[in-house]
């Protein structure tokens, strides 16, 4: 379906409205930024908000909030029920419309472990793989490497901050460390409350919702382009606004690859590129306006797959391969790259996939 004409029309409408507001001396409301203690919301189109944490509560991931005439749709639920409750409370800054739908971009803890904090009756929508992960049909997310590798070190972070606080002499520094310590302690105490809560509505490839808004309806497409960052990534596409929430399938920097299908990911990103949008909201990081990073990331993924594959064929152990693989040829596009060596969880994952394929 070609959505361009509708979008052009709505852009033209926006221009007309902006012009008439200018003439009448009113200020144009778009681009508003509203904050609570825990959250910052940036309005990227009318009723379309990019939400991120301010640092007082460990949220660990972004959300998108779509405000309609009668209800609100939230994409992703943060890292703990406590973080999700802070989000739900903060929504009062931007709307009084109740949450009707929660969409999970994927099953990872930092995007879906707040699910349980949403009131009974809120429909949770996600890919069927996301449901299978969160209800325990495929593995146990609380015991898997991804959750453990991020969560087990939290007490160590807390005690290291406690030591830093003891040593800090400068008052300003003390205040900063105290703030971080408080956030990390709260986070540590919030983790045991997590009960993975799966979507109760699932999709395989596509689902479309129509939300009533002031001047008609907002089309909300939930799209799965194939396996990528996980087995069930869903992007949320708003064709009328030319906006897409990408979750962790596409980030401004390098995404975590511990559960990824690195070889299939570039093709799934082709699906993302086929959409007509000029603004994308990543699962982590700021609002993005350029599509260029998508191609850079595809090139990185293909190269990483080839280099890891070569190490695997040479019989190099994954731990050593992770230290040796050199992706510096992509350093211009990714600030994280500072020489040879890549995240060992990515290499271990690729070795696992190759083992499965070879029947090892
Ligand atoms: Zn993720």
Question: What is the gist of this entry?
Answer:
The chain is 38% helix and 19% strand. Helix 6 runs antiparallel to helix 7, helix 8 packs antiparallel against helix 9 and helix 10 packs across helix 11.
Overall pLDDT: 93
- How many separate structural domains? 4
Q: End-to-end distance, in Å? A: 44 Å
Strand order of the largest sheet: 1-2-3-4-5-6-7-8
Biggest beta sheet attributes: 8 strands, mixed
Morphology: globular
Which ligands occur here?
zinc ion
The unreliable regions are 1-5, 16-28
- SS-derived structural category: alpha/beta
CATH topology of the largest domain, what is it called?
Metallo-beta-lactamase, Chain A
Computed over alpha carbons, the radius of gyration is 21 Å
Please bin the fraction of helical residues.
25-40%
Question: Please, what is the CATH homologous superfamily of the largest domain?
Answer: Ribonuclease Z/Hydroxyacylglutathione hydrolase-like
Query: How are helices and strands ordered from N to C?
Result: HEEEEEHEHEHHHHEEEEEHEHHH
CATH class of the largest domain equals Alpha Beta
Number of helices: 11
């Amino acid at each position: 379906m070609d959505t361009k004409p509708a979008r052009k029309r709505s852009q033209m409408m926006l221009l007309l409205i902006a012009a008439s507001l200018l003439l009448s001396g009113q200020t144009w409301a778009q681009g508003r930024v509203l904050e609570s203690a825990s959250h910052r919301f940036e309005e990227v189109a009318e009723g379309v908000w990019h939400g991120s944490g301010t640092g007082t509560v460990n949220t660990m991931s972004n959300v998108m909030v779509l405000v309609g005439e009668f209800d609100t749709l939230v994409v992703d639920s943060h890292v703990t029920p406590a973080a999700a409750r802070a989000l739900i409370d903060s929504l009062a800054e931007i709307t009084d419309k109740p949450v009707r739908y929660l969409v999970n971009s994927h099953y990872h803890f930092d995007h879906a472990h707040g699910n349980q904090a949403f009131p009974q009756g809120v429909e949770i929508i996600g890919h069927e793989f996301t449901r299978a992960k969160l209800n325990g049909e495929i593995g146990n997310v609380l015991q898997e490497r991804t959750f453990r590798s991020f969560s087990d070190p939290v007490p160590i972070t807390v005690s290291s901050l406690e030591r830093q606080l003891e040593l800090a002499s400068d008052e300003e520094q003390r205040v900063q460390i105290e703030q971080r310590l408080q956030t990390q302690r709260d986070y540590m105490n919030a983790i045991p409350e997590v009960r993975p809560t799966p979507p109760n509505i699932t999709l395989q490839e596509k689902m479309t919702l129509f939300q009533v808004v002031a001047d008609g309806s907002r089309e909300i497409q939930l799209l799965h382009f194939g396996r990528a960052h996980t087995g069930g990534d869903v992007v949320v596409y708003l064709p009328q606004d030319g906006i897409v929430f990408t979750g962790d399938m596409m980030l401004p920097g390098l995404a975590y690859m511990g559960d990824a299908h690195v070889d299939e990911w570039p093709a799934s990103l082709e699906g993302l590129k086929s959409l007509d949008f000029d603004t994308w909201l990543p699962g982590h990081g700021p609002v993005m306006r350029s599509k260029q990073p998508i191609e850079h990331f595809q090139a990185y993924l293909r190269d990483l797959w080839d280099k890891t594959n070569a190490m695997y064929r040479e019989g190099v152990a994954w731990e050593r391969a992770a230290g040796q693989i050199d992706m510096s040829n992509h350093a211009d596009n990714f600030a994280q790259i500072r020489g040879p060596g890549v995240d060992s969880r990515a290499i271990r994952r690729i070795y696992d996939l190759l083992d499965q394929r070879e029947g090892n």
